[in-house]
Structures are given as structure tokens and as C-alpha cells.
Design a protein that fits this description.
Residues 4-142 form the Glycosyl transferase family 28 C-terminal domain. By secondary structure, the chain is mainly alpha-helical. The protein is built from 6 helices and 5 strands. Helix 4 links the parallel strand 4 and strand 5 (115-116). The termini are far apart. The model has no long low-confidence stretch (mean pLDDT 91).
């Protein structure tokens, strides 16, 4: 689980996962980067922050990435072809300054890349759904641009002008 590095807590997600793990509703291993959250987890290991190499290693090992609604973590997990459950931080819970993460998560969900959880009580349902569901393969715009550029260069080098 990844909660980002901004100076906001995401205690309600940590508490929900902790309770699901304690109740045996989640039996898989959970490791969480909790950032500035203050909730004390009792059922799985956590760390505040992590170096990029170690972060990438954890993502590589994960079957499912549960995260906040930041584009960085969502895109990183999708590029590694991981199933993603994203829960947007909400202003009403003092988790962010506004609700832009709701918009971000909704866009990725509507495009078929991730599972969205708007209400924390829906998390266990989302975990069950993501295990059974197939998602679209993600290609970043940079990858698309580079591939198109490469194809254009090959065409030009073969004398096939545009």
C-alpha cells in the first residue's frame, strides 16, 4: 500500500486495512508506506518513507497495489502492469487541500485501468473485484510518443516520407 509523501495523513485507509487484516478478511501480506499518517497499524509492517529503488522492488513484488489517488503512484504501478485499487484522499477528512484526487482516480477508472474506491467501506469489495477482473494495459503518452517517433524515423530512413 502506498500513501504518498505529501504532508497529509490518510488514517482512514490505514485503519480500514488494519481492521480487514485483523478480521481475517485479507489474508495476503500487506506492506505499507504510510507517509505522514498517524494511525498505528497492528497487523502488518509499515514505514514512513522509502528510497525509490526499494519502492520499485516492493511494487515489482506486489500482485495488487492499493494507493491514494496520486498520479505518480498510479502510473508507476500501471507501468509495471500491476492491478491498482486507488482511494482518493478527501478534503472533508483533512487528507488533502481539495478533492482533485477524486477526479484523477475517476478518470483512470473510467478508462478501464484501475479499480476505484470512493467510500472506504467498499474496499473489501474492490479487493475481491480486482482479483477477478482484467484491466486495460496502460501506455503512457511518453511511450506512445517515443514509439510514434521511432516509427516515423524508420519510415524516413526507408525513404517513405510523410
Amino acid at each position: 500500500m502506498v500513501l504518498g509523501t505529501q504532508k497529509f495523513q490518510f488514517n482512514r485507509l490505514l485503519e480500514e486495512l488494519d481492521n480487514l487484516k485483523k478480521d481475517g478478511k485479507i489474508t495476503d501480506e500487506i506492506i505499507a508506506q504510510v507517509g505522514y499518517s498517524t494511525y498505528q497499524v497492528g497487523s502488518f509492517p509499515t514505514f514512513d518513507f522509502i528510497e525509490k529503488d526499494k519502492f520499485d522492488q516492493y511494487i515489482d513484488q506486489a500482485d495488487i497495489v492499493i494507493c491514494h489517488g496520486g498520479t505518480g503512484v498510479i502510473v508507476s504501478a500501471l507501468k509495471k502492469e500491476k492491478k491498482v485499487i486507488a482511494i482518493p484522499r478527501k478534503n472533508e477528512f483533512n487528507e488533502h487541500v481539495d478533492d482533485h484526487q477524486k477526479e484523477i482516480v475517476s478518470i483512470f477508472f473510467d478508462l478501464g485501468y484501475i479499480e476505484e474506491v470512493d467510500h472506504i467501506s467498499e474496499l473489501i469489495k474492490a479487493i475481491r473485484n480486482v482479483e477477478q477482473k482484467e484491466y486495460k494495459s496502460f501506455k503512457s503518452n511518453n511511450d506512445i510518443f517515443v514509439n510514434e517517433l521511432r516509427e516515423d524515423i524508420i519510415k524516413l530512413s526507408n525513404g517513405e516520407g510523410k
